[in-house]
Amino acid sequence: MDKVKQKDLILYSGLIILGLAAPYLFSAFKVQLTYLCVLIVLAMTWNLQGGEMGYNTFGNILFYGLGMYLTASVQVGMFFPLAEWTESGGEKTFVHTTAQYFQGIGVGLLVSAIVPAVIAGAIGYAILGLRGHYFAICTLGLGIAAGEIAGGIEIIGAGQGFTTPPFPAEIVDTEARGKFFYFLSFALLVGTFIFVKYIYGSRFRLILNAIRDNEDKAEAMGIQTMKYKIVGWMCSAFFCGLAGGIMGGLIGYIDSTDVAFDGREMGVFMVLMAILGGKGTLWGPVIGATLFHFFKEGLWTLILGWQYVALGVLIVVIVVYFPEGLMGWLREKYPERFGEVIDEKDRKAQVELK
Amino acid sequence: MDFLIFKAPMLMVQASLDGILLGILFALIAYGMALQWGVMNIINIAQGDLVILGGYIAYTIYLWGIHPAWGVIISPILMFFVGWGLYKLVINKVVDRDLFISILATFGIAIVFQQLMNFIFGADVVVAQSEYGTTMLFDNSVTLPNSKIFSAFISVLYAIALVIYMKKSKLGRAIRATAQNARAAKILGVDTEKVYAATFGINAALCGIAGALISITLTLHPYVGLPYTVRSFMIVIVAGLGNLPAVAVSGMGLGLFEEFADYILGTEFRIGAVFLLLVLILVYRRFKLSKKREYLK
Asked: What is the ipTM for the molecules in this complex?
């Protein structure tokens, strides 16, 4: 085993041990850690789309919200009539047993991964044909339309909201709920990371980059760009749906525009986190999401009421002054660390030119 | 079909008139967007929030006891400076960059504006009473608030004034020259930086007029800006840049669509229908263009 691989192995096993130990070390922050895992997943999948493929989407929130509603609906609908559940609102006329709860959430998560991916595939041909800003605005519209429409559908609670099944009361351990959702999201994070890392080492990434850099040329080279774009979007949708499902269970209450299709918060966060860390890098979104989460949790309570102003200013500042992100900045500064070889002659020539 | 609107033909007349009058207002906002899109190549997500801010200016003078109709003169003047300031602060740094950067930056501006308006004016739905009364048509079966007629009239007036200004004045010529070729305009002595700032200011002023009219015809709320952005974006992509008659027609078309969607689908789906229409139009446009590309092959 060579040195680099050994280093990687230490890094990854260290991170996994840290991740597994985290809920015991910081047991008061389990919910925050779960949020962090989900945010990282969303940022990474957005990066696959916006950073690697160059299709800047505001619409991944569509799959996130869809996953949220689907998980909750399946979890309820498997055992009880869905319409009566949502009609009774917060009052619990039906109670899930422990086995039913876990069966429900398992099947629900499976559905909430597959259905968004299928939908992404189905609408992909129409939507991904759009280029540049038309794509961005179209996906923005898609996310908001989904929220508005979900707010009008009676069976999933309409504007009143949807209360997801509470964690089974038979489990006496009060910490169990937090741990369950933390490990679920951590597993999702590990799965997503392995998947994205696999993509980063594959030909698929090169194709996505070719599409980003010049789609017409890529097509002229014989790459069926549409096929790869759709597959890329489906991968994003798959993980976004799962993340949404976990989030729905954690929050316990689904509102159409404020929780599920929350374009004003989550939908912007995922773009911002990926850009903050650095688009088009493996670690960028992870670092960006972590930084953003710490910033948000640290400052949100201090500037109560002003958080959206701060968010807006943050977006403008990052986008205008810092569009390459943290990884981009580091790369500019220490290119050798990123495996980029600089030709000394070339550099001298550049200096002489100046 | 058992929709109410198909049973009562008078409702159709009502919806059509409402839609057309509303559509003229949308066209005014869209004209502003087309102007700055064409000249500066920027898509301004904060467009709708500028509209709402203009509306709140008119609402404020209404609270001071002045008739809100004066808002159509005061609010554009104030909004021009807001737009100018916004350009100097943020927009001038994103003009030559990737379009997505401008979308995201203006998205950030939109969030800031929404929240500031929420602080200053409160989260209630407000409306400025113009007390213009209503006009009854066809045996009192169609009611038309005079404020809507007034707003359509003012919109048309301002649009005509702007067209003449763009054709005749020096600044108007400079703006058109910059839109055609910024570099060439620069070489020929046009201060493009100033032109950009003026364009953004004029766009904001148009939003101010539209907002003042919205404050007396519809309602104001800090968070309803985005639908106006999307509507104007939609009108611009259907009509094309710099084609004023087409902007007017597609604006009215959108107004009609909305009023009918309101009756047929129900009010709760109105905004959803607007956003879905945007998606459909973009998708239609994509297939039309891809056919053209195949033909070229």
From this structure: 0.82
